[in-house]
Specification:
single chain, about 575 residues, alpha+beta, Jelly Rolls, Immunoglobulin-like, TIM Barrel, 3 domains, six-stranded antiparallel sheet
Length: about 575
């Protein structure tokens, strides 16, 4: 899961660009030997969602094939060669020179297969990827089942309120590493007075006995420590005196370089601590308020595809509003975005794709639990060394039993609690250094919240409930927040609150859907939480308008709760946030 890196010991070849592409609605491509090449292809951009690149593909979610040919550098002979895919939604199968290498289920997270034995030297190698994004009840997230959360008919039939973009969304990279290489690195940071502590665990791919070196560089600091690998593993403890601690206001990063006889890898490391004390979240021992947004990877033409200029633009706009935080709603964002958040000082709630979980029959739940556990494993393996990631979120809006009246409520409460507790237990076992939570829908059973370190609440008082009646809605919000605090005495982050707004629509009085209503809605929420010491964060839903499924709730197939338009123009509400948040 280490991010591809090029140095004196490692090499990489990015295959991003134009690929041959062909849909396969009848799933006959493998029998027709499409893994060897496509006869009726058209160009497709990788990374990028296929839905936004061709009009006739907008609603296509079935099987499709990507094919590209490339030479492998002859200097890679005698080394391990991997094919790494940053993200493919939802099920991807890899072929190299016609040979099926393996498959990966689940979008938004990287996977890699070793292809060393299938390389053809001194001639072109054909890489083929088949990808499908069918909506199925047993997948995470699920589709093509009745949605208790979205009872109004929609197309496509998702259980979640964003468009199910399909395709290869992040780079496809060929990697070359030495025979014995650094396979995994885990860094946990702690603070002792003015010093920083790095607890480093390293694993090689071979169980060898050899020496290695760790170096920490930053500012005037240059620390070197020799380690011994036993069975291909080693642990080290490094102290950085008078350390610069990473924070949202001062995101200082050190370079940690691990070297062996054959390999080398460098990580950007931020020294910081995160914990909960009474009603506050403490960053480096000091209270911090996580103010920002729920967001989506979504833009015109690229869909959910990696868009580097957009990442810069979005982080600059968030800083302009005064934000210091966001949640990766409702799936893991790109590795490049996590790197940018480290550098720019954003506090991240990092979420797996378990959105709108339904606790129905045991067979479906068992499949979803397996996938959720896999996604937690892969997410923590990928992002465990990012200073910006401070909270793991194991789900967004699991469906409360009262929204599913056909099934006995108390049974569903118990099933849901066991499911969610199992995920939280897995996250804590893999990474006890961070906080764990999930984003709870209004009406969720209280018991589901008991094992959360921080209570993340999605609330739409003044929109879906008491819409247009802001005075009553804000009073109800304040009453509910006080009740939740008195019940649990844990810090609360309002992870969603917002109002759909058609940019340019104005009204006097400020009616729903006008920019004035959204501005007053957000102003009212910020004024309420300003009176509550136990509120540890506010995430507006949403940062920018985004593509959703078609329904009578979604004008033009768009969710318009953004304080910026889809093309990043500010609405009045963006200026309200800036007034409250910029210090």
């Amino acid at each position: 899961m280490l991010y591809p890196q090029q140095n004196l010991f490692r090499d990489k070849l990015d295959l991003s660009g134009f690929w041959d592409f062909q849909t396969d609605p009848d799933q006959t491509g493998e029998n027709k030997r499409w893994q060897h090449g496509l006869n009726e292809s058209r160009p497709i951009a990788v990374p990028g969602s296929w839905n936004e690149q061709y009009e006739d593909l907008y609603h296509y979610l079935g099987l499709a094939w990507y094919v590209k040919s490339t030479y492998i550098p002859p200097s890679w002979k005698g080394r391990h060669i991997f094919l790494r895919v940053g993200s493919a939604c939802y099920l991807c199968t890899v072929y190299v020179n016609g040979v099926k290498i393996g498959s990966h289920e689940g979008g938004h997270l990287p996977f890699a297969f070793e292809i060393t034995d299938h390389i053809r030297w001194n001639e072109e190698n054909r890489i083929a990827l088949s990808v499908e994004n069918e909506l199925k009840p047993t997948r995470v997230p699920s589709g093509n089942i009745p949605s208790a959360l979205l009872p109004i008919a929609s197309f496509p039939q998702t259980t979640y309120d964003f468009f199910p973009f399909a395709g290869i969304h992040r780079p496809v990279v060929l990697l070359s590493v030495p025979q014995t290489f650094i396979e995994d690195i885990t860094v946990i940071t702690e603070i002792e007075g003015i010093d920083g502590i790095l607890k480093v665990s390293i694993r090689l791919n071979n169980p060898v006995e050899e020496k290695g070196t760790l170096r920490v560089n930053g500012g005037d600091i240059a620390i070197t420590q020799t380690v011994t690998f036993t069975g291909g593993r080693t642990d080290a403890l490094l102290t950085v005196p008078n350390a610069c601690f990473w924070s949202d206001r001062h995101p200082y990063l050190y370079d940690l370089t691990i070297s062996t006889d054959q390999d080398q890898y460098t990580l950007k490391v931020g020294i910081r601590s995160i914990e909960v004390e009474n009603d506050r979240i403490l960053l480096n021992g000091l209270p911090v308020t996580m103010q920002g947004f729920g967001r989506h990877e979504d833009f015109i033409a690229s869909g959910k595809g990696l868009n580097l200029p957009l990442l810069i633009k979005d982080h600059q706009l968030m800083r302009w509003t005064g934000a210091n935080s966001y949640r990766t709603s409702h799936y893991p964002y790109s590795e490049e975005e996590m790197q940018l958040a480290d550098r720019e000082g954003f506090l991240i709630i990092n979420e797996i794709p378990a959105v709108s979980l339904q606790f129905d029959n045991d067979e479906n739940m068992a499949q979803r639990l397996r996938l959720c556990l896999q996604q937690i494993d892969e997410l923590i393996e990928r992002d465990k060394n990012h200073a910006s990631v401070v909270i793991w979120s194991i789900a967004n809006e699991p469906i409360p039993p009262k929204l599913n009246p056909e099934i006995e409520s108390n049974i569903l409460v118990e099933k849901g609690q066991h499911f969610l507790d199992t995920l939280m237990e897995r996250a804590r076992k893999l990474d006890p250094s961070r906080l764990v939570t999930f984003a709870a829908l209004q009406g969720s059973p209280e018991a589901w919240l008991k094992n959360c370190d921080v209570l993340c609440l999605n609330r739409y008082w003044g929109w879906y409930t008491l819409g247009g009646q802001l005075d009553l809605a804000l009073a109800a919000l304040e009453m509910e927040l006080d009740t939740v605090w008195e019940t649990w005495h844990k810090p609360i982050i309002l992870t969603e609150f917002g109002a759909d707004t058609l940019a340019g629509l104005h009204g006097h009085p400020d009616l729903m859907w006008t920019e004035e209503y959204q501005a007053e809605y957000i102003r009212g929420h910020l004024e309420v939480v300003a009176r509550k010491t136990y509120i540890a964060g506010m995430h507006v839903w949403n940062f920018a308008d985004f593509a959703a499924v078609q329904s009578i709730m979604r004008v033009g197939g768009m969710n318009m709760k953004g304080v910026f338009t889809r093309t990043r123009g500010p609405k009045m509400a963006a200026h309200v946030l800036r007034q409250f948040w910029v210090k």
